[in-house]
Amino acid sequence: MSGTLRVEIVGVEALDATDIALWHAMLAGNPELASPYFHPDFTRIAARVSPHAAVAVFRRGNRTIGFFPHQRRGSSIQPLAAPMNDYHGVIALRGEAPSLEEVASVMNATRLNVGAWVGTATAGEPRETLLVTMPEGYADWYAERRQTWGKYYKDKERARRSLETELGEVRVELGIKDPAMLDHLIDLKRAQYRRTGRHDVFACGWTQQLLRDLMAGASDGFGGSLAAMWAGGKLTAVEYSLHAGGHYHFWFPAYEPRLSRCSPGILLTLDTMRLASEQGYRVFDFGFGGEGYKKYFCDTSQVVREAFVQRPGFRAAVTEAVAGVMATADPDRAEKLKISVRRRWSAIEACETNRIDRVKGALGAVGAALNKVTCKAPAPIAAALDPQ
After folding, report:
1. What's the CA gap between 243 and 285, in Å, rounded?
2. Which residues of 66-77 are buried (b: 16+ CB within 10 A; e: fewer)?
3. The BioF2-like acetyltransferase domain covers which part of the protein (predicted)?
4. Among 50, 32, 47, CA closest to 89
């Protein structure tokens, strides 16, 4: 690539029709950017609610080679809508995007925190996201999965029969835009955060509004919506998802804990895939691994990068100091706990726009990490928001 890399930081509203057309052309020419998070409407909607939003426009010579939607939190640069942004990077044609390190340098970033960077990077560590691909549709995919994981899927078929026997006929609906149902889902999610001691990403307010606006502002095949399952008229599971083109991204699931033995979350996922495939969706994104059920569904993966590119300073020193304490207390778990602190800290920075709230959250993150070292893990809690 010829020419010095230059950057101009603009408000999203400054992008004109030519810029948006180029953005769409870049998406069409780069299959790695198939996720709905790269769609220009995600940037347009998120920029209205996320404080300090902007787009970095990268140029070489007279050519615009890429766009990076982002937000600033103090001296930190993050992908736009973090921590609600599950994929991010520079929107560019394949092979033309600047690397993560080049982005940090040309944007003069004190810190650039990314959790799922798509593109070239040497900093940080690789992570995998898990996906289902079904080029021939749901029936062929399910037949293959049932043959590979026969016991698992037979068990889910029995669970469906049990649910119908206990409550009545099962019904699933996609594309729901009901604000009250979304509010119910958010309430359940916040309750889970309180039980598990995780930072409440919805407490700041703008993240809730993001989900509402994505649901209300759907256009051109892009948007957010709810899928829900009822049994005998009773709501048993609901999930908020984001979609664009043929790509369907599962996002926030919830189910009725009392019915966990009937696997309502899994049944909703299966029916969502079946019905969405009939609408033309061919890729279903389950995000990062970790939950055991995903191995029974997913047949491919995408490698992304988690990285913290930062100059030396107070935050780096604090993180390393905490890591040193953890290493002394529990050498075997020190690295995992350090990563946990950084992830939680990044989420807090992203959510909280007030400096005092960020400091409080950061201290809480350190305390939570140290508690993991000094205390025994609590008894398992039934997660009311993950599929069973």
Report:
1. 10
2. bbbbbbbbeebb
3. 153-295
4. 32
